[in-house]
Amino acid sequence: MNLSFMIEALISVLLVLGGFFAFTGSLGMLMFKDFFMRLHGPTKGTTLGIGCVLIASMVYFTLYQQEPHFQELLITLFLFITAPVTGHILAKTGLHMHLKYITGTQGLQPELKDEDVGQSRVARPARPKRPGDIKARRKQLLKSRGR
User: Fold this and answer.
1) Is 76 helix (H, G, I), strand (E, B) or coil?
2) Is residue 29 in some structural domain?
3) What is the b/e burial string over 137-146, where b = at least 16 CB atoms within 10 angstroms of the residue's CB?
4) pTM across the whole model
C-alpha cells in the first residue's frame, strides 16, 4: 500500500462521515418536536459534518497541489467556535420569549433565574404603514403640527 492510497482512503472516510453527520443533523431538525430539541440538529450534527468535509478538502488540496492549504482549517475552527455560541443564544432567546416546549422528555426542567427569563413576551416592532394611504398620513401630519 502506498501513501497516496492511504490518504485517499482517509479523504473518502471523512467525506462519508461528513455526509452522514450532515444528513442526521438535518433529519434531526425535521424529526424533533419543539424549538429547543431542534437546536441540536444544526449545532451538533451539521457542524461536525461540515467540519469533516472541510478537513477532507484541506487534506485533498494539500496532497494534490503540493502546497499547504490552511483556509479550510480556519473555516472549520471558526465554525466550531461560532455554532455552539449561536445555539446558546437561540436557546436563551427561546427561554426569554417563553416558547412552548415538551415536558415529556427525559431530564429535569432547568432552574432559571429571574434575569434569564423575561416576565412577558418581547414586544414585537410595529408594522410599517402602507405607503398608499396618503390621506391618513396628511391628517396625521396636520394633527402633529397643531392644525
Assistant:
1) helix
2) yes
3) eeeeeeeeee
4) 0.63
Q: pLDDT tens-digit profile of 36-81?
A: 888 877 788 888 899 999 999 999 998 888 888 888 889 988 988 8
Domain that holds residue 33: 3-96
CA dihedral 60, 64, 68, 70 (to 10 degrees): -30
In a domain? residue 73? yes
- Give me Rg for the CA atoms of the chain: 25
How far, in Å, CA of 86 to CA of 68, rounded? 30
- How far is the C-alpha of 139 from the C-alpha of 147, rounded, in Å? 9
Query: Which CB contacts under 8 angstroms, 24+ apart, belong to 90-95?
Result: 90/39, 91/36, 91/39, 92/116, 94/35, 94/36
DSSP 78-133: HHHHHHHHHHHHHHHHHHHTT----TTSSSPPPPPPTTTS-SSPPPPPPPPPPTT-
What is the grid cell recorded at 21? 453527520
The amino acid sitting at 15 is L
Q: How many domains does the chain have?
A: 1
67 found inside a domain = yes
Contact 54, 80 (CB under 8 A): no
